[in-house]
Amino acid sequence: MLALMKEKKLAAVQAEIAAERAAALSLSEGKLKRSLSALKSFDAKPVGRRSRAELVDAAAEACLGFVVQRESMGIGAHNMRTVLADFDIPDEVWNRMGATKPS
């Protein structure tokens, strides 16, 4: 009886963790989409308070966050070509992932 109760509590905690991970993936996907959209809008009509370099940096950071979140969930590297295609991630953004800005 006690073992069954422990299993139910563990299952509840595992379900909550899975829900949090899914929510984090959704948030990182949204951030990626917004940053790519901002970059594409700038490329179509270069106006706004941010430079193109800043938009590329923001998109690269969002892309890295999305990739890391996917990999933490076990849905990572085996299909990155699909991610590149599905989100239409420019090579410039992909190649800038993880790069740090000079201080």
The stretches of 5 or more residues where confidence is low (pLDDT under 50) are none
The ordered H/E elements are HHHH
Number of separate strands:
0
Integer tally of domains = 1
**What oligomeric state do these chains adopt?**
single chain
Distance between the termini: 59 Å
Rg over alpha carbons: 18 Å
Share of helical residues: over 70%
Largest sheet: none
Shape: elongated
As a percent range, the share of strand residues is under 5%
Q: Could you tell me the mean pLDDT?
A: 90
Structural class: mainly alpha
Number of helices: 4
How would you describe what is shown here?
With 103 residues, this protein is mainly alpha-helical. It has one domain. The protein is 76% helix and 0% strand.
Keywords summarizing the entry:
4 helices, 0% strand
SSE order and pairing:
Layout: H1 2-44, H2 52-72, H3 80-87, H4 91-96
Helix pairs in contact: 1-2
